Amino acid sequence: ELEHDEYERQKTILLASLPHDFSHEELADIELDNAEDISPDSIHLWTRYLAFINLLLSQQSEPSVSDRHDSKTELVILEVANSSESLRSDMAILAVNLGFLFTRHFQRSDDHTDIEKAVSALRLATSTLPSGHEYEAGFQFNLANALYHRFECSGERADIDDAVEGYRISANSSENDYEKAGRLNNLGAALQTRFEKFSESSD
Q: For 171-188, b where at least 16 C-beta lie within 10 A, e where not — what string?
């Protein structure tokens, strides 16, 4: 009972932290299950995962590499990594949907904190998703898009480098020619942007 209450509390915190102009359709995409629908074996991990997402979204900027690997973070990620693939997939889909919605909101609001939250959520999603999952290419593509948008704000070399790498991975992992063509187009645009900014001859 206490575990269910804590889950519901973390879910309430998450929903309250989202932009107020998210539509009902957008909020439905997050697909937060009720605690009653979660198995007793996974409720504890779901609660910790939601709490970790709330921590990420409460920060004004994406955690640094060192911050992303503190003991508390590593413990949550380790617990998730040792859970079932279906549970990891469900958790990753929650995180990627949050990241996608924050990316879309950034395009409307031009608020830099939105794109920071998008990148944080999408990095978490890609690290949570089981390796070789059918959605892996799409997750990498969404993360690359968010990094590209953040580069447009920050001008940080690491963001455009990571965006290029993400687009490359997603293109190479595409399941059909239509998807691959679109992702190669984004890769080409990112390479051109990097060349124009940093004059990389290899681009």
A: bebbeeeebbeebbebbe
Tokens of residue 76, six digits: 């949550």
Q: From CA 73, how far away is CA 88, in angstroms rounded?
A: 16
pLDDT of residue 189: 96
Is the pLDDT at 115 greater than 90, yes or no? Answer: yes
pTM of the model: 0.86
Q: What is the mean pLDDT of the chain?
A: 86
What is the average per-residue pLDDT within 18-34? 74
Q: How many residues does the chain have?
A: 203
Distance CA(101)–CA(18), nearest Å, equals 10
Separation CA 203–CA 194 (nearest Å): 7
**Helical ranges in the chain per DSSP H:** 2-17, 24-30, 43-58, 65-68, 71-81, 85-109, 112-128, 136-154, 157-172, 177-198
Query: At residue 1, what is the residue type?
Result: E
